[in-house]
């Protein structure tokens, strides 16, 4: 069974001793084809941008990334590969910036919370004389 659109090819098998058709002996088949590589479609990062918009939206970077992702998808549908690649890479950079800012904010929150809790549970260690 061959996929639609691919050519089929009949190959006459030869025995190693030079006779055709009769089974037996070692059969060597050399087959080479030229592979065509389809161009890779540019990524638009829409799902990542939606997650950044809903969950991690510092300074509205998630919204801006979502807008650029939608523009990239529109350019891809219109056939403008370079425009889609440009908008897609901008959306990727904005999503990375949003993630980094969220992780920094979470880290600052954890550090602040741990310092406050350590002072509340052990007030005498910082020179407090109450």
TrEMBL record:
Keyword Membrane attached: yes
Stored InterPro entries: CD225/Dispanin_fam (IPR007593), IFITM_antiviral_protein (IPR051517)
Domain of life per record: Eukaryota
Pfam hit, one: CD225
Subcellular location(s) of the protein: Membrane
Annotated keywords: Membrane, Transmembrane, Transmembrane helix
Keyword Membrane: yes
Membrane-spanning parts: 46-70, 91-117
GO cellular component: plasma membrane
Family the UniProt entry places it in: Belongs to the CD225/Dispanin family.
Protein name: Dispanin subfamily A member 2b
The gene coding this protein: DSA2B
């Amino acid at each position: 069974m061959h996929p639609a659109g691919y050519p089929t090819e009949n190959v006459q098998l030869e025995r190693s001793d030079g006779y055709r058709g009769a089974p037996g002996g070692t059969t060597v088949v050399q087959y080479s084809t030229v592979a065509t590589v389809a161009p890779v479609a540019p990524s638009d990062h829409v799902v990542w941008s939606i997650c950044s918009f809903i969950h991690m939206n510092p300074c509205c970077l998630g919204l801006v990334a979502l807008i650029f992702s939608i523009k990239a998808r529109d350019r891809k549908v219109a056939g403008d590969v370079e425009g889609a690649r440009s908008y897609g890479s901008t959306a990727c950079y904005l999503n990375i910036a949003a993630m980094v800012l969220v992780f920094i904010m979470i880290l600052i929150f954890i550090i602040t919370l741990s310092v406050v809790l350590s002072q509340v549970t052990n007030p005498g260690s910082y020179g407090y004389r109450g």
